[in-house]
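REQUEST ID: PR-0412
SUBMITTED BY: lab tech R.K.
PRIORITY: routine
TASK: structure prediction, single protein chain
INPUT:
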Amino acid sequence: MTQKQVERQSLIVSTIGNFFIGLAGLIIYIVTDLNALLLDGVFSLIAFISTLAAVFISGNSHRKTETFPNGMYFLEPLYGILKSIATLMLLIITLLETSAAAYAFFIHGEGHVIETNLVLPYTISMVILCFGLGFYNRQKNRQINHLSTIIAAESKGNFIDGLISAGVGISILLLKIIPIESALGFLHYTADFFITLILVLFSYKEPLTILTDSFKEFTQSPTRNRQIVPVIHDVFQTHFNKYYHDLDIFIYKQGTHISVRVHILDPANLDLISESVNLKSLILEDLQNSFEFVTVEFAF
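STATUS: complete
OUTPUT:
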């Protein structure tokens, strides 16, 4: 199975899973009016919509056109950028909304008791589904040497979704054992805010990391990916042997595409230049054993 086929298979499973998870979250939110569940449900629906886009991107990013003769691989990190921004905005908006509700209770004494009856079985189911999807996508990305920016974004998104569901479930469980007449009774009115605040604090790092990594890929910053860089250097060291240290190797990753640009440090070294010309096809053939979409360029 090719790298693109693995990626597409992963995205189709994610699309189906995210649709049912998001739909369930919105239904329970409508019944309970718990904003943390709105965060949970909308997060999954964003994931569902984005995976539909991801399926298209995955199937078309490698295609070459007159406008993009080297392919449209930039769409893959662009997807990661847009999805991470949408996730961060969702976290901020939900936190602001629950903060307003908590302010109304503490300052004006306005609020209503949180409905908890349906939440616990829902969150248990969602944790199982979300973490299951997360591990599935992680395994699929490992199968293709962690090359897919799209699957990496999906996997981290699944784990965030599962974390949100787990946080809501634990908090609701605590509410069931805290009497409303006790000193902590205010949580029956404001737990939504505290749950959301904790979830945001634990969740914001993942989309921020995806945003940073995707931006670096989009701008074609040299990659430091530990699953990619050592493999490529080993291939060059094997072929060039004593000349290896006379090469300056730059490795770029944009989605599933790997671009290797090699600069010869001593342009007057005619033997090395001749060796580079002769070895280029062999090096490319070896690299294609690990990377489906890879190009090699020498600069003399």
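NOTES: The chain has a mean pLDDT of 85.
REVIEWED BY: pending
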